[in-house]
Amino acid sequence: MDAATAKEIRIKLAQNSMSMTDLASGLGISLAYLSDIMHDRRNGPKAQLITQEAFSFSM
């Protein structure tokens, strides 16, 4: 995930009073895996799908 997308998701989480833990739980993944995706350490097809879901979920 690029830095701009990660920042936008963090802003949306803050606006909705949600944490990264809440997002990870809502997506059914671990916080560590979400962190890896947000910091672009995971960027395969599954990570790209989770990025799209995270963006939708955080709205």
Could you characterize the architecture of this molecule?
The protein is mostly helical and 59 residues long. It contains 4 helices and no strands. Helix 2 (20-27) crosses helix 4 (45-57).
Distance between the termini: 17 Å
The largest sheet is:
none
Helix fraction, binned, reads over 70%
Number of separate helices? 4
Radius of gyration, in Å, reads: 10 Å
Which runs of at least 5 residues are low in confidence (pLDDT < 50)? none
Structural class: mainly alpha
Helix-strand string: HHHH
Mean pLDDT across the residues is 93
Based on CA inertia axes, which overall geometry fits?
Answer: globular
Summarize the SSE layout with pairings:
Elements: H1 3-15, H2 20-27, H3 31-38, H4 45-57
Helix pairs in contact: 2-3, 2-4
What descriptors fit this protein?
59 residues, mainly alpha, 71% helix
Concise structural overview:
The protein has 59 residues and is mainly alpha-helical. Helices cover 71% and strands 0% of the residues.
